[in-house]
RNA sequence: GGGCCGUUAGCUCAGUCGGUAGAGCAUCUGCCUUUUAAGCAGAGGGUCGCUGGUUCGAGUCCAGCACGGCUCACCA
């Protein structure tokens, strides 16, 4: 056996297993303990106790370390969470069993049966009486010290990332916990979880560009949803007073460390409430989630410590004035109502805008330029321009402003909520305004949704609704700099063709 | 889409002034029955992302392309 190519070696060893009568891919394995079970149960047991109890275990996992010593050897079996050491000795396994041990590679999945003891160095170990081949590792795992650090491989081959990088695994376990906590929180408050269409003839509920697709049998173009909103409010009309959906939405826009074309949104709607109720609810919910997931209300995010005990509240205009840079002369509240002044202020920040943009859109742009990056600690920004909020209810006595808030944490927009506009006549007029913007070239302006107007016409109770970006919330609570670190399989371009992915079909390629 | 950076052995990385490819881990051979980054001795392993160009000579310089990262624009 002179071929030292690790890939060829592994294929050869697989053939060798078959030749010796082992099933290369057995169907199941009955075990008494996972490696984690063993560690949990016996980590505290002393050598003497183990000897007295004579504990017989049958476990399985992936080989993460292999230390042969002539006619004996050690290996670490890993179940994804914990490792347990197995000691293989020729005089315990017999010649056939020990031959199997010598055929094993790092990364193979095996079973082991034996009794627990402690080595001289006091490590909890299974003294194996039997080994079982369960699956072959044909592609070697990344190196044991440095692990896998190539970002591209981590995203494309997340399975490898999960095997070797505990931090990656921890993020997704926490993500699951976040979702679980949110569901529990809403379920406990009388919400029901629903599922609404992903394929929609009109992609509404947000200002964004959709993906287009096609249904063959109906010969009909459809869009992938850009929000959950409009169908959930139809359900409020239908007499389901508290509904939520936690699911994927799709926006055909750029990719960045904060944007993936498909992402997970929670939206929930609560009848007979307004946006102030949701500010309180949001604070209660996220405080609970943060504590459950991180174990603390002080959460480290990059160079910051986020304090979930202190939530700031500013109107959009207050935030602009409050966070105004000291070296630029501060505008008056009056200036923020003037189209010309707003344009001038934005130019001062080198923010571009369209001539057609009204005061509301410019005000929102100014807020994003001045205040958004500084909103590190949890902060509610409320009272948004009507112009950028076609589905929100206006404030009493102020048709230019709506009852809407967004939650910012770590400089990112995490949540968006408002008192829902439930007047069908006004909603229709708002859609008409959006169509105007659309005709002026705004591809993200909202489309007319006739059925939604019809639904509102049956009467929707006063309602407050909110969307929370689950990916970004997960970033905050797992200290992740990029959204790709919290999405298992982020969108990447197809990888160029490579060899070595597919195992050869016949000969093991040792020529 | 723009700008900047990266791509060398299965993995993590060096590679000087342009002179013909290196280390550790992994793999293979031999020794080794309580090791744990096991050890000792030896060996094999490269389309230097791809395509061109400059040059006597390119991993190295230049151009284009591919993929990725950061960033700006757009957005949540």
**Structural domains: how many:** 2
How many helices? The count is: 15
Distance between the termini: 11 Å
Work out the radius of gyration: 30 Å
What overall form do the CA principal axes indicate? elongated
Q: What about the largest sheet?
A: 9 strands, mixed
Task: Please summarize what this structure is.
This protein is of the alpha+beta class. The protein is 33% helix and 25% strand.
Commentary on this structure:
The chain is α+β, with helices and mostly antiparallel strands and 511 residues long. The protein folds into 2 domains: 6-141, Nucleic acid-binding proteins (OB fold (Dihydrolipoamide Acetyltransferase, E2P), Beta Barrel), CATH 2.40.50; 164-323 and 371-485, BirA Bifunctional Protein, domain 2 (2-Layer Sandwich). 33% of the residues lie in helices and 25% in strands. The chain is built from 15 helices and 19 strands. The chain has helices spanning 6-19, 35-42, 47-53, 90-103, 151-156, 158-164, 166-188, 229-237, 275-294, 316-322, 339-348, 359-370, 424-439, 450-457, 470-478, and strands at 56-68, 72-78, 83-89, 109-118, 124-135, 192-193, 199-200, 212-215, 220-224, 242-250, 262-271, 298-301, 304-307, 312-315, 379-385, 394-395, 398-409, 412-419, 463-469. The strands form 4 sheets. Strands 6, 10, 11, 14, 15, 16, 17, 18 and 19 form a 9-stranded mixed β-sheet that branches. The longest helix has 23 residues, at 166-188. The model is unreliable at 505-511 (pLDDT under 50). The structure holds one RNA strand of 76 nucleotides.
